[in-house]
Task: inverse folding
């Protein structure tokens, strides 16, 4: 948050805004984080001692994962005939020796720790907050930018050109799998963590987090929550009632996939829900009458076929 919470003389929790950090302050924070991570790794026995791996507890317990992680962060291939080589890159005027990292405003990189503090979302900018959350939740690979070359290799087009001129990267099929495997989090590992007054057990959290959901929720006319809101407002107008906290299914489809499922493809008018059909037998009869498939496609079992040159996974 762009500020701090403090308690005044009357016991009220007051928010005090602070100006944005300077580049030196961001670099100082990044240095502190790098030092604390190094101390934590040494304390837990995760840091190798010199050139020996005797003190690397994780490398001894999970050698394959350790090799995948190391190859992933260094931009190299971990296994296969190209093990140890760099990822194949395609572009204009490639400079493979370029190592200089140009830091942007309020950004710092120290010992592999990258800290970015130049994103600011105003208090009531809901769309800006949604764009930031969408960026944080984006998948590792965009399927529309992935294509198959004639020789079977995979070509991935980058969204933006790298500083060394790279516009595409090329993977063997197993090479791409190993890069994706390095991104899979460990079981029960939280990717999003909150600290300070936003932490789950913080004593001031109930004073900071709004008790009621945002007013921009959307629900369709047949949703039972609307009736619940109306009845609750009539009985107790001073209470929040049972307001829905989630978007309707059609609104979620529109926001996630940019598809308006309630728009008629023929006339462009708005469709509405007439009824809900639950019995499977009735659903199959309706689909058969409309000439639509009433049975799901068969699921192929995973199997491993041994080829003369490589292993093929289906």
Result:
């Amino acid at each position: 948050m762009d500020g701090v919470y403090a308690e005044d003389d009357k016991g009220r929790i007051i928010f005090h805004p602070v100006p944005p950090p300077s580049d030196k302050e961001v670099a100082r924070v990044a240095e502190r984080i790098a030092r604390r991570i190094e101390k934590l790794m040494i304390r837990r026995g995760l840091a190798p001692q010199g050139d020996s791996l005797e003190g690397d507890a994780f490398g001894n317990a999970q050698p394959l994962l350790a090799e995948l992680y190391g190859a992933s962060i260094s931009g190299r291939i971990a296994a296969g005939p190209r093990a140890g080589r760099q990822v194949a890159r395609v572009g204009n005027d490639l400079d493979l020796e370029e190592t200089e990292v140009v830091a942007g405003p309020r950004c710092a990189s120290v010992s592999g720790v990258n800290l970015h503090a130049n994103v600011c979302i105003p208090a009531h900018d809901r769309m800006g907050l949604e764009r930031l959350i969408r960026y944080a939740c984006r998948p590792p690979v965009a399927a529309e930018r992935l294509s198959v070359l004639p020789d079977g290799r995979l070509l991935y087009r980058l969204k933006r050109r790298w500083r060394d001129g790279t516009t595409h990267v090329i993977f063997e099929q197993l090479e791409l799998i190993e890069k994706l495997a390095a991104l899979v989090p460990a079981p029960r590992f939280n990717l999003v963590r909150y600290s300070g007054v936003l932490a789950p057990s913080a004593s001031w959290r109930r004073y900071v987090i709004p008790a009621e959901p945002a007013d921009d929720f959307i629900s369709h006319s047949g949703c039972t929550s609307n009736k619940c809101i109306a009845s609750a407002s009539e009985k107790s107008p001073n209470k929040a009632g049972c307001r829905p906290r989630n978007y309707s299914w059609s609104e979620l489809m529109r926001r996630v996939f940019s598809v308006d499922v309630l728009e008629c493809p023929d006339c462009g008018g708005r469709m509405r829900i007439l009824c809900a059909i639950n019995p499977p037998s009735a659903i199959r009869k309706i689909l058969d009458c409309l000439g639509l498939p009433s049975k799901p496609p068969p699921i192929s079992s995973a199997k491993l076929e041994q080829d003369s040159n490589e292993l093929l996974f289906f």
In short: The CA atoms of residues 225 and 244 lie 6 Å apart. The radius of gyration is 27 Å.
